[in-house]
């Protein structure tokens, strides 16, 4: 029985017409995949298990798909593959404020989860700018970060347990409702950041926290990125902790100014948007004092309405930059490096020099509170010459991160795009054996290499 007959017999919903499956050859990256045989729409883990059992038997490639917002090509379909869309697994199963967890299906979108939790006074902290569309399963599989990362860390900090269907259809559970456990290998962690190469996550126990409602959002403008980087480091060095600290260069700063109507003070090249939690008496004054001593060109404290507009403008920056494209074939390839906070000022200086050297149109922004810098490179993806230049820039951008004790991928994962950079990082750290270990794990969990093959690394 072929796959489509099997799905019909098993009463599993699927799409197979060309016009229905073609959208799945793209995600939010510039990569284009190839047509899948079918896009399946399972309603529960048993259906996922049945699909994988069949695909395993027949050596059919399987690509899990959440919101499809990957920026590295990790969720694009592969030739002759089956795409498993997780969007029907969208239920919140259980909530316990006292036990500090929420149990959800993998297709729940991050914003939907937080709307639900907000009504209960709680928060699931991971907050990628794509939270409107990205899902619990996708964000776990890329170990997503986001705007609140500086205060709360990235997704890996918030996963208590997972339900997973393995490549051969077996269903396993790791972790669970408890906040701590010391019971053997931490299998949960293995699936965080695995980009659908080790199993399909169907549900998750997520750690939650009470919401911090009392904070002030300010915009700080600087002449030099270095001053902004130093201010963040000093804030953290003094034991203060911003809820979020986002920076942008001039191109992105002007977009936020245009959307919010908030003018940019003369001479400003860099913008920092910082959320200051008001947890105790003079916290705000301490933050402001450090900022005032960092040569700002202007400081603007936002009222509730401005605060909301600026936050949305920041979250929408990538899409706004896409609107700044001027040429046929132009797309944005986004670099995503991270360095320790102490290294941010120098890393930003070197990045500025690199942009000058390459002469490319690039806009920088990032979750600078945790050292994360994004370089948005405008490139004509149909031009080999331009693509080579952009790739070379991103390689050298990655090298800046490595020289400053950082990583070539902070939060977007590896996908298709960063396979070479990942190897480069392991070589730089004199630990290429990491790659061998990853491949060995892959061979144990997916011996036929059917799960998202060719993403993260080539076997
Ligand atoms: C405008 C924009 C802003 C962004 N901002 C941020 C940001 O601030 N921070 C950040 O970290 N990222 C950001 N991203 C990148 C992207 O949103 C994240 O990588 C996100 O985690 C992907 O989630 P998704 O549900 O869309 O996953 P998808 O793109 O569908 O999939 C991502 C990977 O996870 C795998 N996968 C998906 N679901 C499952 C599952 N249930 N089980 C196993 N594997 C699965 C896929 O096979 C793929 O390898 C942004 C993207 C866009 C377009």
Structure description:
The chain is an alpha+beta fold and 459 residues long. The chain folds into 3 domains: 92-210, Uridine Diphospho-n-acetylenolpyruvylglucosamine Reductase, domain 3, CATH 3.30.465.10; 215-319, Alpha-Beta Plaits (2-Layer Sandwich), CATH 3.30.70.2190; 325-428, Alpha-Beta Plaits, CATH 3.30.70. 35% of the residues lie in helices and 21% in strands. It has helices at 3-9, 18-21, 45-58, 110-118, 136-141, 149-152, 187-191, 225-237, 250-260, 283-292, 304-315, 317-322, 344-358, 384-403, 419-428, 433-445; strands spanning 14-15, 38-40, 62-65, 82-85, 92-96, 101-105, 122-123, 159-165, 171-175, 200-207, 209-210, 215-222, 244-248, 270-277, 296-301, 330-338, 362-366, 372-380. The strands form 4 sheets. Strands 15-12-14-13-17-18-16 form a 7-stranded antiparallel β-sheet. The longest helix is centred in the C-terminal third of the chain and has 20 residues, at 384-403. The protein binds flavin-adenine dinucleotide. Residues 27-28, 63-71, 74-75, 86, 106, 128-130, 134-135, 137-139, 141-142, 144-146, 195-196, 200-201, 318-319, 411-413, 452, 455 line the site of flavin-adenine dinucleotide.
Number of domains: 3
Query: What percent of residues adopt helix (DSSP H or I)?
Result: 25-40%
The general outline is: globular
What Rg do the Cα atoms give? 22 Å
List cofactors, ions and other ligands: flavin-adenine dinucleotide
Cα separation of the termini:
30 Å
Number of strands: 18
Please give the CATH architecture of the largest domain.
2-Layer Sandwich
Uncertain parts: none
Strand content: 15-25%
As laid out across the biggest beta sheet, the strand order is: 15-12-14-13-17-18-16
Regarding CATH, which class of the largest domain?
A: Alpha Beta
Classify the secondary structure makeup into a structural class.
alpha+beta
């Amino acid at each position: 029985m072929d796959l489509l007959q099997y799905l019909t017999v098993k009463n599993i919903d699927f799409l197979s017409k060309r016009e229905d499956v073609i959208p799945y050859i793209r995600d939010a990256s510039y990569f284009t995949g190839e047509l899948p045989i079918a896009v399946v729409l399972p309603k529960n883990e048993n259906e996922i298990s049945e699909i994988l059992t069949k695909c395993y038997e027949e050596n059919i490639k399987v690509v899990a798909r959440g919101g499809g917002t990957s920026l590295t090509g990790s969720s694009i379909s592969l030739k002759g593959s089956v795409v498993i869309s997780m969007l029907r697994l969208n239920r919140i199963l259980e909530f316990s404020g006292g036990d500090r967890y929420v149990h959800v299906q993998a297709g729940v979108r991050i914003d939907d989860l937080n709307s639900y939790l907000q009504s209960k006074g709680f928060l699931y902290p991971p907050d990628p700018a794509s939270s409107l569309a990205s899902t619990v399963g996708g964000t776990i599989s890329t170990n997503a970060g986001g705007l609140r990362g500086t205060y709360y860390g990235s997704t890996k900090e918030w996963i208590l347990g997972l339900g997973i269907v393995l490549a051969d259809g077996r269903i396993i559970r790791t972790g669970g409702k408890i906040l701590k456990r010391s019971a053997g290998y931490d299998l949960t962690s293995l699936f965080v950041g695995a980009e659908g190469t080790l199993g399909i996550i169907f549900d998750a126990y997520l750690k939650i926290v009470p919401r911090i409602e009392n904070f002030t959002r300010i915009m700080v403008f600087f002449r030099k990125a270095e001053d902004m980087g130093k201010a963040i480091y000093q804030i953290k060095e003094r034991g203060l902790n911003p809820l979020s600290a986002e920076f942008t260069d001039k191109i992105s700063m002007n977009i936020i100014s245009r959307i919010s109507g908030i003018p940019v003070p003369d001479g400003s090249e860099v913008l920092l948007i910082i959320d200051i939690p008001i947890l105790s008496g003079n916290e705000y004054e301490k933050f402001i004092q450090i900022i005032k001593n960092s040569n700002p060109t202007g400081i603007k404290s936002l009222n509730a309405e401005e605060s909301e507009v600026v936050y949305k403008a920041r979250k929408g920056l990538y899409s706004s930059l896409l609107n700044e494209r001027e040429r046929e074939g132009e797309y944005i390839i986004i670099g995503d490096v991270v360095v320790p906070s102490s290294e941010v000022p120098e890393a930003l200086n070197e990045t500025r020099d690199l942009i000058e050297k390459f002469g490319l149109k690039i806009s920088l922004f990032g979750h600078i509170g945790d050292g994360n810098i994004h370089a948005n490179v405008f490139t004509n993806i149909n031009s080999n010459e331009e693509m080579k230049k952009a790739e070379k820039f991103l390689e050298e951008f990655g090298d800046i991160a490595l020289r400053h004790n950082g990583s070539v991928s902070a939060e977007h994962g590896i996908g298709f795009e960063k396979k070479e950079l990942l190897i480069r990082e392991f070589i730089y750290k004199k630990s290429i054996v990491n790659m061998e270990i990853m491949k060995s794990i892959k061979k144990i969990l997916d011996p036929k290499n059917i799960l998202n093959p060719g993403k993260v690394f080539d076997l």
